[in-house]
Amino acid sequence: MIAYSFSPEILKEDENAILNSSLFTHWLKKIEANFIVKAIHFSSVDFRFHSKEPLFLKLKAEAFLPDGKPVHGIVLLRGNAVGVLVVLYCEGKPYLLLVRQPRFPIAEHSSLEIPAGILDWSLDYQKIALAELKEEAELDVSSEELIDLTAFYYSKNEEGFAASCGLLDEKIRIFAVERNVSKEELSRLDGKEQSYTEEEEWIRTEVLPYEEAARLFVDGKNLIALFVYERYLESKGRLQKSAILPPQTL
Predict the structure, then answer these.
(1) Residues 205, 210, 211, 214: is their CA dihedral positive or negative?
(2) pLDDT tens across 196-211, in order?
(3) Which of 101, 189, 210, 249 would bridge 94 by S-S if both were Cys, CB 3.0 to 4.6 A apart?
(4) Which residues on adjacent β-strands are paired with residue 57?
């Protein structure tokens, strides 16, 4: 039996909403399969807009490995997410459709990223991927166009790539979309602006040549998406694999 406690800033009426939320119960099911948990203290909660469904949960657990060794138990729960690498081919050259938006935690007022979003209670990765493409990039995509790069890369069904496994529970499932476009379409997709005042999101699309964009990335999911996409291209015979040579002996 796990002993639960809550910080004073969490309202009494919100405690059941936290304990019964899909965000917490989905994580706890996985945790209890691999660890022994004696107690969990909830430090803070942020709810989704106009909802009592938790968006972020910070907690500290008293937890142990099966052999009794204690483990670091501070966790920020935010659930899993999706990211979509949009590759546009124009006159035989590859471009990436990206979004720029402020990222306060890393002090970036204009972070360059692939379209991405957090899963909702449905845990439907494809649905969220398509919705984020529509919302962030104003791009209508069918489910048949989605290339599941995570499923391609792993021989088993993984949820995704861990974003920051020392603190976050988040795993990101990566998809790709490929399209051949005209110069006019490439230009039309560049520089679109979307504002979502309630969610405090200010997004602008940007189209960049593939190699140029890759050298500008600091966001980890972008680099993972590129790495796996290029492995996917190799598997299709669409990317020449360069030989890796050892360093010269001095």
Answers:
(1) positive
(2) 655 567 889 999 999 9
(3) 210
(4) 45, 77
